[in-house]
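Sequence in, structure out. Go.
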Amino acid sequence: MPLGNEGHPQINRATKTRPAQAGRVFCVLSSKLVHWRHPMEPLAKIFGSPARLKLLRLFTFNPEVSLTVAQVADRTKLSREVAKRELAELLAAGLLRKKGERSAAHFQTNSRFEHLPALSVFIRETTAVRPQRVLAGLRRAGTLQLVVLSGLFSGAIEPKIDLLIAGERLDERVLVQAVRSLEAELGREIRYASFTTPDFRYRLGVYDRLLRDVFDYPHRVLVDKIGL
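Output:
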């Protein structure tokens, strides 16, 4: 991973999204678990497909962000047709509000949606990605020696990164693709840093501040061939 002018690793995807709530441990949600019926008709329109769940997470975790159909499709890795259809459903349910028309239309979370507070809590407490899913994408980037989840994955608000990777022959382009794929599932940007194994060992030995921000707070080790 490229280093900054001061020798510190650059965080690949800096984000302005709100930090995860401290102390939260996330679980995996199946889109088939929830089947709402009348009189909760608006909620019945929200849950219905994996695509809709992606949009639901995207707008729940980023309530102040205003996005076009193209931007939603890009961030969720859905086709424009599917994104447009799901946006229409969430708009009809009252969860979203729309500004502009046609290609200039932007969509944003409707802060007045009556179920938004309860829905936000539910989504935050049931959103995550399985460790196997994280590793499947990262393994294509090279030989992994260390993978650590922190930040939004652990519920700790202090760490400056969410994903720490060390390995050999890491392909940065493949790493970026893997992280973006995870972001599409989670609806949130993921801050990550990658190192060669020798670089990581050196920084661990000098108690690098970035590593300290990870290991001094709640974290989860998925791969450890270094022997921490």
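Check: The beta strands are 96-99, 106-109, 143-149, 163-168, 192-196, 220-224. The radius of gyration is 19 Å.
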